[in-house]
């Protein structure tokens, strides 16, 4: 028995399609986490809440709060209790984000 196998390059196309779907899933997941963080963020003036942003680089995304005091609110200080908003938002949406990425990979 003889079997001929010919590669036509379609794996590269499939890989590119998967990468684009994963990028989209990561972006959507990061925005979900950021939206949740904005909704639970303690508000005095709204500056901290409004500073929560998403930046994406390929298949990675970063959610950040861009004020000088963001970490003090999240983790607390010796004079004020922690009021976490970023970490709980990530942990609370972890399964949804991972499921979206898995769905992007499996099609």
Topology record:
Blueprint: H1 10-40, H2 47-51, E1 52-57, E2 60-65, H3 70-75, H4 86-106
Helix pairs in contact: 1-4
What does this structure look like?
The protein contains four helices and two strands; from the N terminus they run ααββαα. It has helices at residues 10-40, 47-51, 70-75, 86-106, and strands at residues 52-57, 60-65. The chain has a two-stranded antiparallel sheet. It is elongated and about 80 Å long. The model has no long low-confidence stretch (mean pLDDT 91). The longest helix has 31 residues, at 10-40. Helix 1 packs antiparallel against helix 4. The protein is mainly alpha-helical.
Q: Helices and strands: which structural class?
A: mainly alpha
Order of helices and strands: HHEEHH
**Arithmetic mean pLDDT:** 91
Compute the separation of the termini in Å: 35 Å
Percentage of residues in helical conformation = 55-70%
Give a count of the beta strands, DSSP E runs of length 2 or more.
2
Beta-strand portion reads 5-15%
How would you write the strand order of the largest sheet? Answer: 1-2
Structural domain tally: 1
Short description:
The chain has 107 residues and is mostly helical.
Record keyword descriptors for this entry.
elongated; mainly alpha; 2 strands; 107 residues; 11% strand; two-stranded antiparallel ribbon
């Amino acid at each position: 028995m003889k079997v001929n196998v010919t590669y036509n390059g379609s794996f590269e196309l499939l890989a590119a399609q998967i990468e684009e779907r994963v990028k989209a899933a990561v972006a959507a997941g990061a925005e979900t986490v950021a939206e949740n963080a904005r909704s639970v963020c303690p508000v005095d003036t709204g500056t901290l809440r409004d500073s929560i942003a998403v930046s994406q680089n390929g298949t990675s995304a970063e959610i950040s709060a861009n004020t000088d005091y963001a970490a003090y609110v999240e983790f607390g200080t010796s004079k004020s209790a922690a009021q976490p908003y970023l970490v709980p938002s990530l942990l609370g949406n972890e399964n949804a984000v991972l499921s979206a990425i898995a769905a992007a990979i499996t099609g």
